[in-house]
Amino acid sequence: MKPSIIKLRNYFKLEAKNEYQNSAVIGGLERMLEPWAAEARAENLPETIIQAVTTRLRDYHRLSEESRKETLYGLWNRIQRELGDGKPPQESAKPRAQPTPEKAPPPQESDQRTPSEVETPTPEPEPIPKLRPQLSPGEGADLNADVTTLKRVGPSYAKTLERLGIRTLGDMLYHFPHRYDDYSKMKPINRLGVGEKVSVIGTVTSVNTRDTRGGRTKLVEAVINDGSAAMRVTWFNQPWIKKQLRQGIQIVVSGQTDQYLGRLTMNNPDWTPIEKKNLMSEGIVPIYPLTAKITQRWMRNKMHAMVTDWAPKVHDPLPSALLHDAELMDLSRALREIHFPTTWEQLKEARHRLSFDEIFLLQLGVLQQKQDWFKRTASVFRQEEGWLDRQLQRLPFTLTSAQQRTLSEVMNDLASGHPMNRLIQGDVGSGKTIIAALAIALITDQGSQAAMMAPTSILAEQHYHSLLKLLTTNGGPLRPEQIHLMVGATSESEKIEIRAGLASGEISVVIGTHALIEAPVEFHDIQLAIVDEQHRFGVRQRAALRAKGTNPHLMVMTATPIPRSLALTVYGDLDLSLIDEMPPGRQDVETHVLYPKERERAYSLIRRQVEAGHQAFIIYPLVEKSGTQHASDESPEKAAVEEHAYLQKEVFPDLKLGLLHGRLPPADKEEVMTKFRERQIDILVSTSVVEVGVDIPNATVMLVEGAHRFGLAQLHQFRGRVGRGEAKAYCLLIPSQANAVENERLLAMVETNDGFDLAEKDLGQRGPGEFLGTRQSGYSELRLASLTDLKLIQKARHHAQALFQRDPDLSYAEHQQLADTLNRFWSSGSGDIS
């Protein structure tokens, strides 16, 4: 195993041991990216892996603990697939013994979705679509030709380029610079401030190496001078840099300025030697991602020859009318400008054109998926006259206008003769479950079956109790024995009975976790599949549930508001229903951020609320503390097990406290939830396991400890656990340290109760990962386009819909090249059609 991989594995294991606190490396994991990437390239590690690691970990500090855990697992699994036999390596306990297989780095103490909580197996990420250019007809060798077609690129260089993901001429043409230097506009060193991200030209005046941390770390230090001032530049654990730097050479360093002992510094910057011809020119110089044995000079020379010879020959797949209407640069020119820009404005237009292509092809793809789905036939379920009125009269409440609108859309889908493919999104407590219940009622009333799949046993049990009440009481259409719950903890004997009932048709409705999609489960006539918190499931898992029937209707639900830019792309193949109105009586939850020293104020509020007959939640990010720290100290790491004992003994000795976390056996978790639901517990001390699926109308206080460690979506879900009754409710957020009180996410929670506003903020702060979940996870790896660029997405969607309406099969002569490009773009992707 290469040292860089061993080092990465050790970082990941230490991060897991530290509860995903971003503390495995001083200053955060992102601080090790530059030196690690350089070391990995020196070891000839594939560039695809290097880029994946640096891309995923660059914003690691912005992620919640759950997302950090998923990111590390995903990266390690990818490394296993690409470098080994699918089994992660492990150092043997014996000196110099051969490595032996083990499982991926395990989580150790964090409660961010342990396996017992999320019963859904983590699906593999779907491969991402790639944009591949095509030559104009009659132009000679096409761009699928090997890179050895280029002059002076032999098998040895071709093998090296393969580590950058470059195998063909087309790959070469689409290997874009990751930044640009404009030597004419660089600031002199004496005008730089601390914290600026800049590029600086300077002459190396000295370079040396020294050991730090007892010899465990090699530090390369150089001093560069540009005539205005000098600046110290350091690289950690990259000793080979000393051999590449020489006193008197001119280099460009790019990074963020820092300060040490009052002097300006730059740590682990990107750097390149200056070519005299670039220094004398006034052009913009491209800087490419590299690998070992490839220099910027070599890459720029080859890329210049490549772009000069081949870019003019690339056929533009977009019809000329579309280029005109969308005001886009033609493809050949865009490829020239993105590699060797004439001006910054031309570079901006080139990036816009190439980003447009990616989103435009995504839009065409989801439109085709939607059309393919609509071409299928499904069973028709029409209401008898007065049926729906009778069902609504049974309810103890009146539907909101948003619920009525959504219900009408669902009923129209069920009567259409085509399989429903609808996403229902609504904020916490907006009333999605009743829509699902009424759809189930219609399906089962006509003799068919329905299944609802949830990601956790707690959420599945919550739905089971809700549907049991909605469908079997007050003259409901079903009997209790026709509705069953099947989760991982269900006994095997009971599972056998449920499977038999589903196969015979005696059981009409089953609610469960991934146990529903296991091979032994067969349905007599399943016609409705419902997936809740759908972003926690992968394409293959939804497909497995659908495969239990023949084109059953599909309803997916989420309480995580989806930003509009993602709704138009990632979920563009689904019909969307938005429940944007809360039931009467629901009021905004009053939210406050408190300093850690103000914790007693929070305890006082909880006590007053309990004395008034209400209940409270206290959430901790960890299950247990590591080490022997006492729960009552002011350690920033507070955990549920220790704090439960401390609170029960020292703070609320006269109240009844319950403890809930993912490591409890399922039966114990259900017992705790039942007691809390029946008001036998005053305060529930819990981890993030209560993020979804807990409906306690009597709870009025949500206290979240270590609040800065959670993402906005999670915090909003926590807040949604209270305020579900008529009483005033409160959400109190306490970060572990006082300096986190001004945390941007926490302040956003105070500013608004609107989940959609928070979703947009979360998308802007942390990117789309939290919303994508496992659905088309490759969307986050688009080359240029950003899923946060709503303006570009709306533009591309508008033109894709217009073209699709005219020629949905892309059969017109002027669309043949576009059809070929679309097929190649999606050839390696995976749609959401089963």
Protein architecture, described:
Helix 1 packs antiparallel against helix 2 and helix 11 packs across helix 12. The chain is built from 28 helices and 21 strands. It has a seven-stranded parallel sheet with strand order 11-12-10-13-14-9-15, with helices on both faces. The chain is α/β, with parallel strands linked by helices. The two termini are 39 Å apart. Strand 2 and strand 3 form a beta hairpin.
Question: Regarding quaternary structure, how should these chains be classified?
Answer: single chain
Amino- and carboxy-terminal Cα gap: 39 Å
**Major sheet, described briefly?**
7 strands, parallel
Unreliable parts:
85-128, 137-141, 627-635, 774-778, 830-834
Envelope shape: globular
**What structural class results from the helix and strand content?**
alpha/beta
Q: Please count the helical segments.
A: 28
Strand neighbour order, sheet with most strands: 11-12-10-13-14-9-15
Radius of gyration: 29 Å
Instruction: Tell me roughly what share of residues is in helical segments.
Output: 25-40%
Average of the residue pLDDT scores = 82
What's the total number of strands? 21
Binned strand content: 5-15%
